Amino acid sequence: xxxxxxxxxxxxxxxxxxxxxxxxxxxxxxxxxxxxxxxxxxxxxxxxxxxxxxxxxxxxxxxxxxxxxxxxxxxxxxxxxxxxxxxxxxxxxxxxxxxxxxxxxxxxxxxxxxxxxxxxxxxxxxxxxxxxxxxxxxxxxxxxxxxxxxxxxxxxxxxxxxxxxxxxxxxxxxxxxxxxxxxxxxxxxxxxxxxxxxxxxxxxxxxxxxxxxxxxx
Length: 217
Prior knowledge:
- This protein is mainly alpha-helical.
- The chain is 65% helix and 0% strand.
- The chain contains 9 helices and no strands.
- The chain has helices at 25-43, 50-57, 61-68, 74-96, 100-111, 119-128, 134-160, 169-189, 199-211.
- The longest helix has 27 residues, at 134-160.
- The chain is elongated, with a radius of gyration of 19 Å.
């Protein structure tokens, strides 16, 4: 559901803390969030400490508490930030795309993890494994619905332009996202079949077959 731009996951060296020059505003929040994504993926939610995020970000623990507040809301806050960041980059790339087919390719690339240690997808796994109250479930529902809405918009555009088949949008979206989620779990688990075959190419080919207009070979 979320991809990393950084390559295979590995422990990042902590950034030395310069208490005389702590980052502020958006810079600080972005640094704290990126550090949190990395630490959560590496250590898991149960072993997570605010001091770990602070060390990774090169910030004081006080600054981390300021940005995140209570630890029990941290995972959802980090996931929401991660998704907003990913969707912003997806939207920017989609605006430069020349066709709905190219946008579909971008969507699949954004949804699937790039490798077994993908930090963004590992974050999703950690969040979904937690018990959430009604407010937390609402946040997760909105994030999951966000993927559906983006895919539907791409397919609707292609359908209206005559480049995609006239598929039932809700049904197609359910099938497509279910397939992508299954492939993503395979990649994160390290299934051997994806070591020499591209999950992205497999998924894109399957979606394109279903979306191919009947008057095209």
